[in-house]
């Protein structure tokens, strides 16, 4: 896993933990099986998008249910132009 992916994974995991209220969640735990729900998924997606500067539809959390899986998916997408963390 690249350094960028590891950094994003830590950020995603931090938001998953914050939004679900589960500080014991690991990078390979399923968000929805460890305290997350559709409401907290929207909260997490909004926070992650703001912190990474990437567009993040909350539905991606249903397809990529662990911090590791979502981080790998986010690494594939460049930050949005003009967003926080972006290049423009």
Automatic annotation (TrEMBL):
UniProt cross-references to InterPro entries, sorted A to Z: ACP-like_sf (IPR036736), PP-bd_ACP (IPR009081)
Residues in Carrier domain copies: 2-78
Signal peptide range: none
Name this protein carries in UniProt: Carrier domain-containing protein
């Amino acid at each position: 896993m690249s350094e960028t992916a590891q950094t994003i994974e830590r950020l995603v995991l931090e938001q998953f933990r914050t939004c679900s209220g589960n500080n014991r969640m690991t990078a390979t735990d399923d968000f929805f099986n460890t305290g997350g729900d559709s409401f907290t998924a929207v909260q997490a997606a909004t926070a992650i998008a703001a912190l990474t500067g990437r567009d993040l539809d909350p539905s991606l959390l249903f397809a990529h249910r662990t911090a590791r899986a979502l981080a790998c998916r986010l690494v594939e997408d460049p930050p949005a132009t003009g967003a926080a963390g972006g290049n423009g």
